[in-house]
Every structure is written in structure tokens, then in C-alpha cells.
Design goal:
The chain is an alpha/beta fold. The protein folds into 2 domains: 30-111, Leucine Dehydrogenase, chain A, domain 1 (Rossmann fold, 3-Layer(aba) Sandwich), CATH 3.40.50.10860; 137-259, NAD(P)-binding Rossmann-like Domain (Rossmann fold, 3-Layer(aba) Sandwich). It has 10 helices and 11 strands. The strands form 3 sheets. The chain has a 6-stranded parallel beta sheet. A hairpin with a 2-residue loop joins strand 9 and strand 10 (234-236). The radius of gyration is 19 Å and the shape is globular. The chain starts with a strand and ends with a helix.
């Protein structure tokens, strides 16, 4: 059996060329605001700093300018100013915040029209209702990879392991909108392996290294690994890639799968926000 390796770097490269072209078109039109992404971080979380840096690099690669705000104090005023600024077309709160409650509170202050990481309750509600919305970038990256490799979704049984607000739940909504039959599993799910073995599309998003093992998949499965876990051996996913890859129809690697596509989804939504301003 030949397993398809779903290379996220390849998808990200294609997205990068498309976004670069769209940014150039906006500049040539001379109308609306050029795409500009504001990134707010508390300066205390290493993970948030790495995420902010990756967004800045990706933005430069497509011609989107960035505005970085770093500080440990209250950000209410800064976010209010960004909301009012017509030159800012997207706002991202770089997570995790050291104070999780403060990060959650600040997300709720972001104008949903500029919430290009789909973090606000307004966009989450719209997505759950099947309405147009900005979507969490990792969840959107799952769909981007499925579409890029022409993987059928409609009518297939999709099993999602993990129910977070940033991956599991929004992926479920996106797959439902594309007519998949969706099952969400979590830490209280009984007989997890029984559920995952029935999956035609398996999305692992639990944040547990090596959670998905060979006996938990079937030969026809398409496996999307959203896990990014730092271990002594390096970055690994939620899936035992080397053990599972020979026995499934398609799989994303970690690193090199979802990771490269995620910042491109933030930028795509930032560009879409700018395009909506064009008369």
C-alpha cells in the first residue's frame, strides 16, 4: 500500500504565491486599506513569542505589513485603538498568554470584523451556526490541506480527537458544513480506539504526544495530525507517524504538515478583510 504524504509545506507554498498576488492586486487598485496585521502579545510566554515571530515572517513573505505590540500590562486601550484604526485589517492575540483568563478577556475585546484568527465569541457562534465567519487558523488549515489534495469530505465519517475551541470544535463545524458525518472524541470517550478505527477522516487534536497508535486506525483512513508537542526528541504530533504511516491511505507529518499552513490561514483572512474594504 502506498501512503500519500500530505505535505503542508507544499500547500503553504501555493497559498503564499496566491496571497502575494492578491496583495499586489490590492496595492495596484489604490482603493481600500492595504493588508496590515496587528499582533498583540504579553511578552512573557515563549510560545506566544515564537508564534508571533512565525506570523511576522509569513506576513513579510506575502507583502503584508505587521504591527507588533508587546507588553506585560493591560492591553485594553491598545486593542480599542486597533479596532478604530482603519489601517489595521486584522488583529491577532498571540497565545498562550501567561494569564489565561486575561487572554480570554482580551480576545472578547477584538472587533469581530478584524478577528482574523477566529477567536472571538461572535465568530465562534457564527461558525457553529454555519454562517460566514473568521475561523481559527489551525482548523482552517485542516480544510486547506484536504482541499489541496482533493480529499473527499462529503458523506465520509470524520472522527476528531480533541474538543478545544481553537481546533476540535471549529474543525467539526467546518466538516459538518462540507457534509461529513462528524464524531468528536475527548478524554471521557469510552473505547477511543473503537471510534478512531471507524474513521475515514481522522483529525488528531488532543495535544498528547503519540496518542494515536497503529491499532487505532484502518487502512482507508486519512489522518490529519494537528498536534505540536515539544519533547526531548523534538517536535512530535499526536500520531505515531512512523508506525502508522505505512498502514493508512494518507497522513500529514509533524513537523511539516499543519504547521506551515496555519500562519497562511491567518494571512488569508487578513487579506480577505482588506479586500472587503475595496468599494
Amino acid at each position: 500500500m502506498t501512503t500519500r504524504r500530505l505535505d503542508g509545506r507544499e500547500v503553504a507554498s501555493h497559498l503564499r504565491r496566491d496571497l502575494e498576488h492578491r496583495v499586489q492586486q490590492l496595492a495596484a487598485s489604490g482603493e481600500g486599506s492595504p493588508p496590515r496585521l496587528a499582533i498583540v502579545q504579553d511578552g512573557m510566554s515563549q510560545g506566544a513569542g515564537l508564534y508571533a515571530a512565525s506570523l511576522e515572517r509569513a506576513a513579510r513573505s506575502v507583502g503584508v505589513s505587521t504591527h507588533l505590540i508587546v507588553g506585560a500590562g493591560p492591553h485594553d486601550g491598545a486593542i480599542a485603538e486597533l479596532n478604530r484604526d482603519p489601517g489595521i485589517t486584522g488583529i491577532v492575540l498571540a497565545q498562550p498568554f501567561a494569564d489565561v483568563g486575561e487572554g480570554r478577556r482580551l480576545v472578547e475585546l477584538i472587533d469581530p470584523a478584524k478577528d482574523v484568527d477566529g477567536a472571538t465569541p461572535t465568530n465562534a457562534g457564527r461558525l457553529a451556526r454555519g454562517e460566514p465567519a473568521f475561523v481559527p487558523a489551525t482548523a482552517l488549515a485542516v480544510i486547506a490541506i484536504l482541499e489541496a489534495f482533493d480529499i473527499k469530505v462529503a458523506g465520509r465519517r470524520a472522527v476528531i480527537v480533541g474538543r478545544s475551541a481553537v481546533v476540535g470544535r471549529p474543525v467539526a463545524s467546518l466538516l459538518l458544513a462540507r457534509d461529513a458525518t462528524v464524531v468528536i472524541c475527548h478524554r471521557q470517550t469510552l473505547h477511543l480506539a473503537r471510534e478512531t478505527r471507524r474513521a475515514e477522516l481522522l483529525v488528531a487534536a488532543a495535544g498528547v504526544p503519540g496518542l494515536i497508535r497503529p491499532e487505532m486506525v484502518n487502512a482507508s483512513a486519512v489522518v490529519i495530525d494537528c498536534g505540536i508537542n515539544a519533547t526531548d526528541a523534538g517536535i512530535v504530533g499526536d500520531v505515531e507517524f512512523a508506525a502508522i504511516a505505512p498502514f493508512v491511505s494518507a497522513i500529514t507529518p509533524v513537523p511539516g504538515g499543519i504547521g506551515p499552513v496555519t500562519p497562511m490561514m491567518v494571512l488569508r483572512q487578513t487579506v480577505e478583510s482588506a479586500e472587503r474594504q475595496v468599494p
